[in-house]
Amino acid sequence: xxxxxxxxxxxxxxxxxxxxxYEEEHTPWDQGGMTWGLASLLExxxxxxxxxxxxxxxxxxxxxxxxxxxxxxxxxHGVDYAPLAIEACRKMGAVAGVSDRVRLDxxxxxxxxxxxxxxxxxxxxxxxxxxxHPSQRPALMDLYDRVLRPGGLFLGLMFPVRERAGGPPYSxxxxxxxxxxxxxxxHPMAEFWPARSQDRRRGKExxxxxQKGR
Length: 214
Prior knowledge:
By secondary structure, this protein is α/β, with parallel strands linked by helices. It is built from 6 helices and 8 strands, in the order βααβαβαββαβαββ. The protein has an 8-stranded mixed sheet, with helices on both faces. Helix 3 packs parallel to helix 4.
């Protein structure tokens, strides 16, 4: 199911028009398939969830991760600002025969259609946190906390974890990032480099897993 509440124009804080980026095929974050770091976890049997867990994916882009996980039986809910990205994910899900396990919202994450509180077993984060302006990060963390059930997991492949001036992508500082979760009562589960990364991301992206307090 796809709900269309398409935003329009450039993001006033980052200055980027995300839909225009898709129109122009200027999408360096798009890996053309499932995120390498996620794919390697699945191949190694290290993915910490079992189907049919419900997973929320902010800034889902064309939705390769959403469709791939839906094919494994997970219930997926993706949100993206760009209508073209959501349309690509919808079509991919239909071709894969998983539309019944995929819900999509074309919306601003900070003005979402109603999503029930504590309704997800996990949040899968990759290149969304780094795309929003740093001033919006507390509100994004509030959203993650609101949609996760007690005991739910935050699974973030964070990028870029090296110091970087400006953005997007805006750099992620592991120390302050972890402290934000600890202050909210989350428990650190794991922090590790992915087994596989694209060359331009090697040494710049890292998994951070936290569990929400019960």
